[in-house]
Amino acid sequence: MKSICIKTNNKSFLSYLLNELRLSNIQDIYFSENEFKNYKNIIIHYKGKDNSYFFQSISNILAYLVIDEIEETLLKNIISQNYFYFNIAEQNKILNFCFDIFSDDFNLYFNKKFSYISNQFYDYIKNNKSLILTGFITFRLPGYFELLNDIIDEAVNCFIIEKEYLEFISLLKLYINSESPKSDVLHLIYSKDNGILLDNNKSPVSTTNDIFNTKFLSDISFSKNDYILNTLLNLLPQKIYIHLIDNSIDEFLNTLILIFENKVQLCTDCNICNLYKNSKKSLKNQAQKT
User: Rounded CA gap, 23 and 16, in Å?
Assistant: First the structure.
């Protein structure tokens, strides 16, 4: 018979483990909860013959515990220790970026975390009869903490970029609100990162690419759309009609909407939209024929 004693004084951890053991399909196990001098203990006895199966099953439950119940606290602690100079609200934003990074490629990150943690538990409990849960997590999962640190560093970079971006938007809005409009209406014909500006008479407007006359207040760049933005900031129209030829809004258009706010009106089905949509279809058909 194999036995394992898991030691912890955390009530939520105890509850989690007991619940998972009750719900598990592990055959030939018996478990109980006892309190000794320093710790509360979950004692698990296995009377089967497949020890590897038993160790792996318990290791998997413990790995799920770390990820489900402890990971958020670990992330918070690392952020508060390494990035203490950010205030609480900023630290919470960094934490949310960590969650976003994990969710963007959930299977990859989860499998990487789970397999590493489970293997570390397996290697330990097959050679030891007792495990102090908090101590094990703190001292025997260096690869897991390295992954968390890497994710936090990436999240901090995302946070700084977003902060600079919002400051960039705020400064441009202040500039727009402090100046009088210099034109009435401009039309932006926009399709997949390509834009054409038309004036109120539907005549093309030359985009401003003079870097000495730029109104940019940040290093943030939108590549060739920089010239469109710079032209709009120089002409300061009272109204901007954005004609969505692909019926989609990208990062650049979202930025224009944030900067010019109620001056922007989106359009997908007017004479201008239909003219450029038909022109695009015609060019596409010609390309397919050739």
Answer: 11
